[in-house]
Amino acid sequence: MEMATTTFHSSTSSSFSIPNPNPRTNTLSSSLPLSKQLFGFTFPSSSTAKTFTLRLRPRNPTAFAPTPIKCSVSEATEAAAPVEKKKLKRRSDIRNIAIVAHVDHGKTTLVDSMLRQAKVFRDNQVVQERIMDSNDIERERGITILSKNTSITYKDSKINIIDTPGHSDFGGEVERILNMVEGILLVVDSVEGPMPQTRFVLKKALEFGHAVVVVVNKIDRPSARPDFVINSTFELFIELNATDEQCDFQAIYASGIKGKAGLSADNLSDDLGPLFEAIMRCIPGPAIEEGPLQMLATNIEYDEHKGRIAIGRLHAGALRKGMDVRVCTSEDSCRFAKVSELFVFEKFIRVPVDSVEAGDICAVCGINDIQIGETIADKTHGKPLPAIRVEEPTVKMAFAINTSPFVGREGKYVTSRNLRDRLSRELERNLAMRVEDGETADTFIVSGRGTLHITILIENMRREGYEFMVGPPKVINKRVNDKLLEPYEIATVEVPEEHMGPVVELLGKRRGQMFDMQGMGSEGTNILKYKIPTRGLLGLRNAILTASRGTAILNTIFDSYGPWAGDMSTRDLGSLVAFEGGTSTSYALASSQDRGQLFIGPGVDVYKRQIVGIHQRPGDLSLNVCKKKAATNIRSNKEQSVILDTPLDYSLDDCIEYIQEDELVEVTPSSIRMCKNPKFSKKSSR
Fold first, then answer.
1. H-only helix segments in 290-389
2. Which pLDDT tens digit goes with each residue over 212-230?
3. pLDDT tens per residue across span 621-650
4. Distance of CA 587 to CAs 20, 268, 577, 629, 630, Å?
5. Over 70: is that where the pLDDT of 96 sits?
6. Among positive and negative, which fits the CA dihedral 356, 362, 363, 369?
7. Nearest to 144 by CA among 128, 167, 162
8. CA 135, CA 533: separation in Å to the nearest integer?
9. What is the Cα–Cα distance from 627 to 471, expressed in whole angstroms?
10. Which one has a higher pLDDT value, 413 or 175?
11. 373: alpha, beta or left, given left = phi > 0 and alpha = psi -120 to 50?
12. Distance (Å, rounded) from C-alpha 672 to C-alpha 443?
């Protein structure tokens, strides 16, 4: 692994150099004199050697205010363009950008403010918060799952904006979207700084050679520390082997919810003008190669009237309504089609047009069998573009038809054919997912980038009327040179200092290795960073919330494959299992709740081998929750009042985290139940 050491010299003037121990790698020069601006000021050279800590804070708090926005990234890109491709030219009236960030760093709120200030909506129009999160599940969970396109107009130039997911499980969406843009807005929280997903999306953007504008968001937070965030982001650029020009990024300080931005944390403008100016100057226009039509289908949408709609950026040529085109997957595999309708994104809607020039992002109708990654090319001289490649999945789950006694009560689609068709349709849009046949004809193995990635699919299918069962999540191992390798992830935990002990103990039991710990601002919160097997993360989120009394925040992202870490226990307690079907009664639950915590209340239909609670000891315990009080002819002198504890309300995510190897989750449109897998023999039941 390459390591870059940064030495700073202090005298009347300051400079720094970054020697590279590997002379063959030319990503960072041995001396890095940045004569141009770095975060708004310059570093001249010096010879006196005295080491000091990196503190990029100007003496004058308004030093950023009069500084013009000047980006070496866009200048270097434009200067290098004629050298790389002689026929390459750029459009100056369009900017294609993607807004990327870690989850909850405020990028969707920032997009809302950009749309409002660009007069996308009428002054009297009622607009809901997070307008880009149009999906019901996105609004309920407060996260972005699917990428969306919109555009604004600024000073006679069109800015195509793509809002991307912030969770690492949906990294496949981000990887696809980076094919459509020339630059990114990297949104970073002013307190937390770069987080795991920040590193992932920045690494991908730098590999594409995109220009980067760093937006330090939520600058109005009381514990904001912009200097630390900028320093950490700069160190992240160096770790990812960014070029000298990419390291010379423009920093914008913003408050997305207030709609303010500025070149200095202490001197914000009344609007987002500095951010729009940075986009126009730092993000280059789309590169256009003179030649026949080429467009890569990066995203797919479906309309009941128009059918499949392919979305992508036009790389070369021009596309017209009614045009005959060739659809290619490779040089040998091509077919012909006709464009029936053509749309571009203006403001918040799709607008029909007759033609689209190269460099713009458009939507194409009429090709009913188009797939993501295919190229729409010229009918006679068209050639395919390189296919989209995404990282491999790391977690798998088994989907099967519902075999419980309650099958068909609540669901509309219950057969294996329905299940197979729905999973096949999901593969058309979700490139990061894989589906394979299971051991039986009615079982399918679904692989994804994480548990949340597959859980969102399950929730969508449940709302569409599907009824099925899913097994526990399992990691996808590899065997290289007769050595078993398993996926490892970087886990970042934000936890108050008083709860650090139980959290550290919990992560240690799951084979986690701590490699960094630091305080975060004045809020008394510590950030712990672990390298932990993906197996150890299964069921960890609820356990950490319990250990920290609901105050800890867990973020994870895939790191690499490493040696098998050994056996580990992810659940210490067993389950309470019903050994008789019927309707639960208060009389039976009163005695059952002494054995553990229950999932059900009185008057609930249950079936044999359904999991009705958590046993307070290891091992499963079978009990009868449908037992009724015997009726006699002896009059009772006083009524016995039964006091029942409130049952646990487990969501779909909680159930999937809870179940183990011999257990299943039954998913229906109305209910989520857990049961023992009949294919496994009884564990230590008493």
1. none
2. 999 998 888 888 888 989 9
3. 999 998 887 777 666 655 567 788 888 888
4. 74, 65, 17, 6, 10
5. yes
6. positive
7. 167
8. 32
9. 30
10. 413
11. left
12. 19
